[in-house]
Amino acid sequence: MEKHSRNSVDLLGSSLASLERATRDTPRLKQVLDTQKVFGLVPERDIQNAQARLKSETHPQITYLLEKLEKEVARLRRKKASLESDFNLRKVRLESVLRKDSVESLEQEAKYERLRMLRTKRDRLKYSLSRQRLQKYRQIPSLPPPDQS
Question: Domain boundaries in the chain?
Answer without folding.
Answer: 49-138
